[in-house]
Amino acid sequence: xxxxxxxxxxxxxxxxxVDSNSAYIARSLKDLGxxxxxxxxxxxxxxxxxxxxxxxxxxxxxxxxxxxxxxTVDDLTxxxxxxxxxxxxxxxxDAYAKLDEWATRRGFVMTESNLKQTDLPAVCEIIDxxxxxxxxxxxxxxxxxxxxxxxVPSELKPMVENHLLPLIRDHGNIVAKSHITRLxxxxxxxxxxxxxxxxxxxxxxxxxxxxFRVQLPVIEVKFATVGDEFMxxxxxxxxxxxxxxxxxxxxxxxxxxxxxxxxxLRDHSLVLTTAESCTGGQIAAAITSxxxxxxxxxxxYVVYSNRMKQQSLGVSEALLAEHGAVSKAVVIAMAEGAIxxxxxxxxxxxxxxxxxxGGTDEKPVGVVWMAWGKAGKITARKFFLPMGRIGFQRTAxxxxxxxxxxxxxxxxxxxxxxxxxxxxx
Amino acid sequence: xxxxxxxxxxxxxxxxxVDSNSAYIARSLKDLGxxxxxxxxxxxxxxxxxxxxxxxxxxxxxxxxxxxxxxTVDDLTxxxxxxxxxxxxxxxxDAYAKLDEWATRRGFVMTESNLKQTDLPAVCEIIDxxxxxxxxxxxxxxxxxxxxxxxVPSELKPMVENHLLPLIRDHGNIVAKSHITRLxxxxxxxxxxxxxxxxxxxxxxxxxxxxFRVQLPVIEVKFATVGDEFMxxxxxxxxxxxxxxxxxxxxxxxxxxxxxxxxxLRDHSLVLTTAESCTGGQIAAAITSxxxxxxxxxxxYVVYSNRMKQQSLGVSEALLAEHGAVSKAVVIAMAEGAIxxxxxxxxxxxxxxxxxxGGTDEKPVGVVWMAWGKAGKITARKFFLPMGRIGFQRTAxxxxxxxxxxxxxxxxxxxxxxxxxxxxx
Lengths: 425, 425
What we know:
The structure is a homodimer of 425-residue chains. By secondary structure, chain A is of the alpha/beta class. In chain A, 41% of the residues lie in helices and 24% in strands. Chains A and B meet through helix 1, helix 2, strand 2, helix 8 and strand 10 of A and helix 1, helix 2, strand 2, helix 6 and helix 11 of B.
């Protein structure tokens, strides 16, 4: 069954309003196993509304029109539908009764503007709107179920739940349901994932539709099947995928990397401390953005200058002079110092050149050293992230969190981040 | 001139993603005095993409296609355009060169998936994408300027500013030039601004169109005029507005609050330090997200526990016991301690209850104390920000930065944030 959406309103064209109604309708349709086929958005333009209604009602089985039901002159849905399906405007008795009741209950006197909301194409039946003065209305034309709905989200939502979904189910004789599973991964690119899936799973079943969505810094992978009979297949292939990409999967649904790290620390009863130079507190900020982080985090050090690396963390002047602030020796000393000063169980430290200035031939902008681990057992790694200051800081923060997560969970910390997985395996 | 938008991606149809790109494009088009005529949104469906491109390119003068440029099999824009305008797919030399450079710079090896992004309809020229691997591309077909753009917002935005608007201006011979001035304000609400403008400037000229856009934590106010003859009027009324709201204006164009604070500190040759409890490093992270922050920031302390407030900042146990961690006395001691430990010129400290847990009747979730100033001259203020953990941390971070900015610039720090300005004046 094909479903189309027609959204109307000048505010949607000017960019003053971001359309969230259509996303709400789409998410609701998932319960019926349906995904809209096409959406069209037009301003308050009568000829364009008329032609759009004609086109969409011929092209699809259900047309949901959203917006344009209000009392003002720029609310054109009723007139446009009347012209598109060639059904004259008349005063709808049911709509009038509803409006009368609505006005009486609130002690309002109906105005001409209000009454306009009861003038509907003759073939239409109303759809109840418990939340507002404008009823919805519906008809069947070109074998298409056409439903007109209010643009105000608080009025739209109960109408979708209580009326639209049952009407669509009846119209389409729908029984099949869709199942969606979601995984989130860090440390692999979209193209790396796609290439690996093609190579490793040549027999991936067509019934399990794979979708990728970049939600920086993670990637969300969606596994969708339609019909209860494919639910087991969905679970089976989600598990195969998860097993293959095990190292990269941070969790299900909408888990954040900072949340996965908090969970890992909490599960292992570990308290983390951070010693940050180039990320300037972003690692600490990300960890403490999660509720309950006080049980896994007590202290963080932002040490931008060499002087502060010495004073706050006890990094020796000699070490800084010999190796420079961006070096393996210094990040290890920073991590050891942070554990000693804070009495935390585990530390992560970072020092690099975020740019735009400060790079040298030997240590160009984008070079960063990270160290992590428990006292006396600190590991360090170097990365090169030449992606601008903002991208550098964000990526370095994410990598640092992931390295600690891996360390805590006993996963390898020497993986090739963001390169194609298949080359590695 | 008629403009159409075609947005593509299954995630836009399923409701998983709310389309904000088209609103961004529409707001940008306002600078040329243009409003899109029609928007269409379709999934990753080749026949539907092809017919939509044909329909919209025949119906309008400019067609902006957004999404579907990525490396995966569900990215169909290039193939769809090729079929719609009957121009065969070939490997585009310029696109290849850009991708090669992009990959080399990052030390990536190009895969087959990546290379797919360089296969474009033969008639197309590329549109540069400084932010990502997928170039945009354009051609003219059916007398329509067709431009294909990436779905990732951070890649789309510079492409719109730098390439799409000039291309559209050239294509449409747009001469009536619009002049746009932008101010950014912090600490006042959109409705507070609107009400004050209505009251203070009853004679605001119709030629200077005022637009407000919330860009948390700041508000952007846009002054738009069309035609060179109104440029002076634009400047005059922008200045009147700026003079009236002087305390709240942090700067012009797209200045960030963190940038305004960096500028103020640099202009006064001051080094700042931060002592953060409930914001967990967000203030330090925001300040150091700005290039060149090392000249105004050396050290920050994230002190989540009472123990660390004592150890890192020398806050006395007695003070903590007497007043509690969220108190005027403790934030003042934190600020004094941070200056002493780091030898900075000025400090800001913060301690509050971010929630969701940890609130009491006396100090509910949302209560926060902040202190700022130079050694021996610390001022403190209490705020109540009951807006959820994320909103609390963001707002507290912004308020802390603004208070230091005001202190440095000699502006009042006792203003009523976010209440209507007119009540205050």
